[in-house]
Amino acid sequence: MNSERRNNIRLKPGEVTFVAMRPEFFKLGKLLDISSNGLSFNYLAPGLFSKEDNKNKYSLDVDIFTSSNMYYLSGIPCKIIYDNEINKKTPSLVDLEYRQCGLQFIKLSGKFINRLNLFLSRHAVNSLNKNVNQQAV
């Protein structure tokens, strides 16, 4: 049986939100869920995705930004926990594969923690589809 290792509840973005890996921004995708400890996102990659690209790097930075330009946080230090292919059909003329990547935030400074908490309170929703900062009536 696979037990859940997360200590914090993952929240869904309240609007379309993107994640981009630095420095080359070669992985850019849509945020699936986020907590104060990490996030997951989907992205498209070339069909001949190299195993070297999937190695657990000691650290990397990502940017998080919303489609409405209401939020942008750059250079969040992370490490890759997983980066897996998703069995999803892509157009046959394009050699791309869908992937899902999970990141763990590491060594966050007070500045990043404050900005991340701002995102969670203003731009994330819980599983009941209510803003995190709204109280039940």
Question: What would your notes on this structure say?
Answer:
By secondary structure, the protein is mainly beta. The chain has a single domain, classed as predicted glycosyltransferase like domains (Thrombin, subunit H). About 10% of the residues lie in helices and about 40% in strands. It has one helix and eight strands; from the N terminus they run E-E-E-E-E-E-E-H-E. Strands 2-3-4-7-6-5 form a six-stranded antiparallel β-barrel. Strands 1-8 form a two-stranded antiparallel ribbon. The protein is globular. The protein starts with 11 loop residues before the first strand and ends in a 12-residue tail after the last strand.
